[in-house]
Amino acid sequence: MRINRTRYLTQIIAKLFIWSAALLTISVMILILFQVLKEGLPVLSLHFFIESPRSMGREGGIFSTIIGTFSLILVAIFFSVPLGVGTAIFLREYTRESRLSRIIRFGTDCLAGVPSIIFGLFGFAFFVIYLNMGWSILAGGLTLAAMNLPVIISTTEEALKAIPYSYREVSYSLSGTKWQTITRAVLPSALPGIFTGVILEVGRSIGETAAVILSAGSSLVMPNSLFSPIRTMSVHFYILAREGISMEMAYGVGAALILLVLVINTTAHVLLNRYVRRRI
Q: I need a surface site. Which of 77, 191, 198, 277 has the fewest CB within 10 A?
């Protein structure tokens, strides 16, 4: 009886601890969102989104920073997704466990733990100075691509690992080649997991500041090429708040960032569900 009472008491304490931790985490998130949206939503308007910043961001809107943000994300995705997915396919489908695969995985794990400021310094030293790109969309996109590469490799490899080997066997039994098996049987089934990694990359890229400032700059001028310096929404929010330029505009940018991430995640979720239903 004492043992049963002890187990029951232990279970109650564990549940209370888990629920308390979950509620505390959710409460902190709700508090942050409430504060930012409470102060930022009144600032949002159509002119806020279609006008460029004026007077260092005290007036105007955030149109140039929106363009800069999406330009940087597209460049980062363009370089990181093919390289990351290709590396994961190589590790999972074309190699067995070997010294080379262990070295690649170890390097990926190490890169995943490197602070973003280190990637920013690398981008500044290599892309901005050594390759003479200057502060630009291309330099910033390549820096973010290098920073997000470990996430895409690991999520893609896990997605490929989750596909049953019977899918491959059926393809081989129908005289399918290795490449046909990967492209027509494995990758379509693993696409939801790969897509999750890409969404994680987009979310991290939107919120990045240190690496972006060092590689893409913080110019408020509307970009006209890949070699133009830019200021992203997160950098604009940081500068407005850190320099005390305008807390009102800073809260507006913060609210816009929250809504942007919400729209991207919701759209991705809807598209992914439609794809899964069509597959079924």
A: 277
β-bridge pairing 53-54 and 59-60: antiparallel
Residue entry with tokens 């973003």 = 116
Q: Which residues contact 197 (CB under 8 A, 6 or more apart)?
A: 84, 151, 152, 154, 155, 156, 159
Residue 3: predicted pLDDT: 61
Residue 156 vs residues 99, 102, 169, 186, 222: alpha-carbon distances, Å: 20, 16, 21, 11, 35
Query: What is the secondary structure of 171-232 as a DSSP string?
Result: HHHTT--HHHHIIIIIHHHHHHHHHHHHHHHHHHHHH--HHHHHHH----SPP-STTS----
Cα–Cα distance measured from residue 53 to residue 57, given in angstroms and rounded to the nearest whole number: 5
- Distance (Å, rounded) from C-alpha 104 to C-alpha 171? 28
Concatenated DSSP letters of 2-41? HHHHHHHHHHHHHHHHHHHHHHHHHHHHHHHHHHHHHHHG
pLDDT at position 30:
92
Looking at residue 60, its pLDDT comes to 87
Parts of the chain with a pLDDT under 70: 1-3, 279-280
In this predicted model, what pLDDT tens digit does every residue of 200-243 receive, in sequence order? 888 888 888 989 999 999 888 888 889 999 999 999 999 998 88
Residue 77 CB-half CA count within 13 A: 18
Which pLDDT belongs to residue 257?
92
Both tokens of 217, joined, read 């700059």
Token pair in block for residue 116: 């973003």
The neighbouring-strand residues paired with 244 are: none
